[in-house]
Amino acid sequence: MNQLAEEIRVGTLTLDGEPVDFREGETIYEVSERCRREVPTLCYDPRLEAFGACRLCVVEVEGIRNPVASCTTKATEGMVVRTRTKTLEKHRKTLLELVASENRDTKVDELSGYASQEMNDLLVRYDARTGRFGGKRSGTSNSKDKNPFILRDYDNCISCYRCVRVCAEQEGDHAINIMNRGFDTQIITEFNNDLRDSSCTFCGQCVQTCPTGALTDKKAIRAKDTPGEIKKTRSVCTYCGVGCSVDILTKGDRVVGIHPAMDGPANEGALCIKGQFAFDFVHHPDRLSKPLIKQEDGTFKEAEWDEALQKAADGFLKVREKYGNHAVYGVASGRAPHEAAYTMQKFIRAGFGTNYIDNCSRA
């Protein structure tokens, strides 16, 4: 055990006056996070390659003249690091005031996305003034994009490029990219078309990583005026058998949005279009609230579950009595969880004594 610990620990540095161990390949930021130092950042997402764009995470290192970006600087033996000094805090506050002065809104609704409160939280923490640096602004909102899921409100964009990077590095879609430089910088799709005409799969990852609400969940934000506090409930997506962890957002008794669970063991913050956006069926007026049994005249009548299940069981028995055991064939969903697949094959093999069971993955 001690030998394993020595293999993991490759050196020691001094962090804010305290000696701490670091592991091979760790950056100063990662060491600071592990040691619970609050180093601010706006361009960092632990799932992505470090970018070093926002410069909020800069720290002082003895022997280096200027502060260095902690997210891109590797820890080395004997390094002496200071993560919070009067000079650093002044630097961070000024950077935040520069960024915030460009944005139309600094306080956005929590329903906008998982990370949408990051910039506002830092503005509050540093008591940063949002109108100190007035002047030219970058970013132009794309209100003409008619996709039903993502609001592209680039007046609130700070060019952290987390959306572009998560689309490329995590999803491999490369649906969005960066155009121009300076104040003319813009996040675009191929040929500046709508998201619907790009390679976007509407996984929602760009929305959930955006720290300012420049990208917003259109479906969730509709409930911003719904009364009540937002409550998060951890659950598992039921659309397939992968078992993605999600946080269900509710106000009162209504589901108003979905956030992917960044610590979900199966998905690690990723979701598909259905898991991310297909939640409003829960309260749809056309949703069936009771089983329906078809009548002889072709109409349907509502029934209780016991009656409906008995009707189905009687139907299976009638088919077996009339045509034999081999008249029933089971096809299970290839995306069903193990428990459902096991139950399905047990139903056919034990119930009808045949091996007429397959799954749609073979199609």
Could you say what the CATH architecture of the largest domain is? 2-Layer Sandwich
Compute the separation of the termini in Å: 49 Å
Q: In CATH terms, what is the fold-level topology of the largest domain?
A: Alpha-Beta Plaits
Helix-strand sequence = HEEHEEEHHEHEEHEHEEEHEEHEHE
The count of domains is 3
- Quick check: average pLDDT? 92
The radius of gyration is: 27 Å
Number of helices: 10
Query: Ranges with pLDDT <50 over ≥5 residues?
Result: none
* Class from secondary-structure proportions: alpha+beta
Overall number of strands = 16
Strand order of the largest sheet: 2-1-5-3-4
Shape: elongated
Structure description:
The protein is of the alpha+beta class and 363 residues long. The protein folds into 3 domains: 2-84, Ubiquitin-like (UB roll); 96-283, Alpha-Beta Plaits (2-Layer Sandwich); 292-362, no CATH class. It contains 10 helices and 16 strands. It has helices at 2-8, 28-34, 86-102, 118-126, 162-170, 205-209, 218-221, 273-277, 305-323, 338-352, and strands at 9-15, 18-23, 58-61, 68-69, 80-82, 150-152, 176-179, 186-189, 215-217, 230-236, 245-251, 254-260, 292-294, 300-302, 330-332, 357-359. Strands 2-1-5-3-4 form a 5-stranded mixed sheet. Strands 10-11-12 form a 3-stranded antiparallel sheet. Strand 7 and strand 8 form a beta hairpin. The longest helix has 19 residues, at 305-323. 31% of the residues are buried. The model has no long low-confidence stretch (mean pLDDT 92).
List keywords for this structure.
363 residues; alpha+beta; Ubiquitin-like (UB roll); Alpha-Beta Plaits; 3 domains; five-stranded mixed β-sheet; three-stranded antiparallel β-sheet; 10 helices; 19% strand
